[in-house]
């Protein structure tokens, strides 16, 4: 490492290049070696030589951590795009390295934020404002110009989409991030440098909820779900939807089994999980 360069991670692992100059690499094999990360570059060293990737050249980072869909028998790895090249990196401690990599690229970045852009399914009259991003373990923080501090937990992101539109008098890319503040579903919109926005989308979308099209709900289940999504207290749901308490409790149990609700404390306070908010948002959009 050069003077003024800080080492952030130094691990053993595997890596391989799967796309070179826009073309898929045939007969891909994992190469064992050393994976060294600094605040300026990523170094992949093996018996075959050394490759250096400047962090400033990385355009996207995608996380793969699914044992049911391994690549060449490796289920946890990071996909890094640099120009027309794509490299896969699988450090031995995937979670620690992933956090250090995202922090190195995104921590301290100036962003433009609209929060909340949507609250309880209702579009808000909120202005774009600048802020600064902090990357912590399993969440990001946004310190906004008006003094607010917004936290977005990665596991709490229910839906994430990219869009383009006018942001501070200029057309820019921005991401729409659905999450919760307290018990209320909100959307926070985040813009900035396109490369950094794409990398942030990779971080926040790494645990994105399952496709809501695969979820089948009864009319009563959908009514309860949408009431919760709109911010109605779980204890007020029976009166709000006109059902008796026992029926609502049974619906809660069914939605918990589907991974849409989770129990906050017995008996009986529940809150929407990321998947539940995703399903509710899709349902409201169809009305």
Automatic annotation (TrEMBL):
Q: Does the keyword Ligase apply?
A: no
Briefly state the protein's biological role.
Involved in taxis signal transduction.
Q: What's in the keyword line of the UniProt record? A: Chemotaxis
Q: Which GO terms describe its biological process?
A: chemotaxis; regulation of DNA-templated transcription
What species was this sequence derived from?
A: Halovenus carboxidivorans
Molecular functions per Gene Ontology: DNA binding
Identification of the protein by name: Taxis protein CheF
The cross-references to SUPFAM superfamilies, in alphabetical order and at most eight, read:
C-terminal effector domain of the bipartite response regulators
Organism domain of life: Archaea
